[in-house]
Amino acid sequence: MATTFPASMELYALTGLVVVCGLYLLRDFIFSSPKPQAKETEAKLKADRPKPTRNIIEKLQQTQSKIAIFYGSQTGTAEDYATRIAKEGKQRFGLPCLVADIEAYDMDKMDEFPPDCLAIFIMATYGEGEPTDNANDFYHMLIGQDEINFSKGTATPQDKPLSHLKYAMFGLGNRTYEHFNAVAYKLDETFTKLGAQRVGELGIGDDDASLEDDFIGWKEPAWRAICEATGTAHVSAGKKTAVSNIIIVEQEAGFVDESLLHLGELHDKTASSMGGKPTYDAKYPYNAPVKVTRELFSSGDRNCIHDGNRY
Fold this sequence. Notes:
This protein has 311 residues and is of the alpha/beta class. It is built from 9 helices and 11 strands. Strand 5 and strand 6 (153-155) form a beta hairpin.
């Protein structure tokens, strides 16, 4: 007596046969190792990739930037202004700009700052005339010091170690505090004593009035002075088409150093990976673990929860 199989089993057998045939035909493509040319291209990309550095001079050379925009930021506003200036410099004037967290670089290299480059400082005053956390070391390296240890050696104001440095500065503060914009005022005074040349007026922003209006009012005259100092043609706002400097390169998995890859974490790993301390602010808040949760009150469909006793 002949044995019959259900139609579903015949379908499964046919499907399996098709899959096996497909794998056999594509075996070279699926299981072959990367072509030598692909390996050579990947190796070249790895070799050409700039390595992380705390040397601001090397970073300017790596990025081919003419302007370094340093920011001292506590809540993220100064960092945002620095980013906006960098974008405008590229789009309006074709000036490659580097946005730099002061804490991420060895600022004793400022005595080696290239004379054909320019530095912009966007500095916030925090609390009672104090620098922000990320600018603390830089500030105290300069302010109130009779002798300063730069990369070329110890120098005094009489030595004018920053005589080749051209800079612009905008300060962020609040006039309701006693030491209004103390960081910007003191840094500007110290830079002058050390021989640096300020380009344009010292910008002073007041958060008690309109910080944004103060920033915009300082920015346009500052650009005119910066263009003159760098030999760049000044272009009125809106007169030049934006030019993107983004280069898209496809890379295989595992190519990027994951220790430097930002995946949306609550803190910035870049500073800590380069020897600095993470700076926690509104943009990179500290992820504080909650130890105790208490319900303060409950009324109908409303209630109030208090998270306390954090580390």
